[in-house]
Amino acid sequence: MRIELVTEGGFAAMPGLQRPFVLDCGSLPAAQAAECERLARALATAPPAAAAPAALRDARRYRLAFVLDERPHVVAATDQAMSAEFDQLVQLVRQYGRRVD
To answer: Which InterPro entries match (predicted)?
Structure first.
């Protein structure tokens, strides 16, 4: 499974730091690959996250895109409104993924 992480917004957004990360979960050691799939499955079956309050318009926004069981999924969250699974998958993609243009 391939996961793409796109980060947008924030108070002092810097375009160079917002290039997407891409992670091929198949390239990870078995334990991390299993965790990657577990987190993606949890996000794919979770109800949509609530929108962030308008007062948080400078919050960072994150979007994870992946294909699971031949179905595309796109899940989004903000700094102030993200599940533990979303945060864990973002951290995994940042740690093991690579930036792309």
So the answer is: Emfourin
Tens-digit pLDDT profile for residues 7-28? 887 666 566 667 899 999 999 9
Task: State the chain's mean pLDDT as an integer.
Answer: 86
Closest among 93, 62, 92 to 80, alpha carbons compared: 62
Q: How many domains does the chain have?
A: 1
Burial 83-99 (b: 16+ CB within 10 A, else e): eebbebbbebbeebbee
Distance CA 93, CA 20 (A): 10
Which range marks the domain in which residue 39 is found?
2-13+20-49+58-99
38-55: average pLDDT: 77
Joined together, the tokens standing for residue 16 give 């160079």
With H, G, I as helix, E, B as strand and everything else as coil, classify residue 62: strand
